[in-house]
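Hey, weird one. I pasted the 2-dehydropantoate 2-reductase sequence into the form twice and got a warning about non-standard characters only the second time. First submission, copied straight from the form history:
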Amino acid sequence: MRVCVVGGGSIGCYLAARIASKCPKRNAVTVVNRPRQGGSRDGVVRLLLPDEDVVKGDVQVSDGMKPLAGQDKFDVVFVTVKRKDTIQAAMEIEDGIREQLLDQDTAIISLQNGMGNVDIINQVIGGHHHAPVVLQGVTYIGASLLEPLFTQHKGVGKTFIGVKEGSDNERWRSNVEQVAKMLYVSEDENCSATFEISPLVWTKLLANTVINPLTAITNQLNGALLEERYQPLVHQACMEFQQVAEKEQVQLLLNGKTPTEFVNSVCKNTAPNTSSMLLDINNKHETEIEAINGYVVRLAQQHHIEIPIQTSFYNIVKTMQR
């Protein structure tokens, strides 16, 4: 099996390290970054665990897809870039199709925050005759990039990959199942395929619309939101999100918890993690606020629902990133 990870950030390196550590074939995993010098090279990706142990594996690092021309095709491609880089990532995937590195047997899995990323990728590559299938994924893993190809594990969580019912292509389905097995760590940290990905995407969006902006605004780690002073905001934001989800006729998968209890459980599981939105603010980068809270605010406007806390989160972060 050959696996490609488009995006060498925290989650991308987490996936690369977990999979490469279980692949007997050298350089079965490739990490594709933004095109720079137009070359490829060998590297070692590392994942620092909470007990100070390190998971590592040999990978190939490439500045884009074109330098990989002539190599064997990829079976699975994970897309882990920020929303603003999705079009560029899709163009790299398109280059991979042209170079015969990807085809209809390849599964492309978007593990990105926010809504609409799969649509963007499909818009770019959909015109190709042998275009790969693009699948929506969700992950609750917490990780923080320490340096290139070195990421730190900051929170346990499950990963889900949405597969399509009725597909007659058993090869990419088999590839998804195989890579999911490679990502098994424990009962609390594993990967599975599901036919019902939409409720999971919305449930992750619930957590993102609360944890990301509130940690960015308050400059706090995820676990700090469990403090009493933040709980009224957490609760109100959750209730507002639930209103929008109900209007959209979406069933949230909360495992018997209330929305607030669910978000608090994510905060607890990823307590030492710095949210991606806080990192973006601190690094003066564009955030994913439009694809997260902006998406919910626009839906609320369509349904004529007042969601003042979610709207405030959206407006404040928009101001902070200017």
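That's the output from the first submission. The warning seems to come from a hidden character in my clipboard, not from the data itself. The chain has two domains: 3-195, 198-320.
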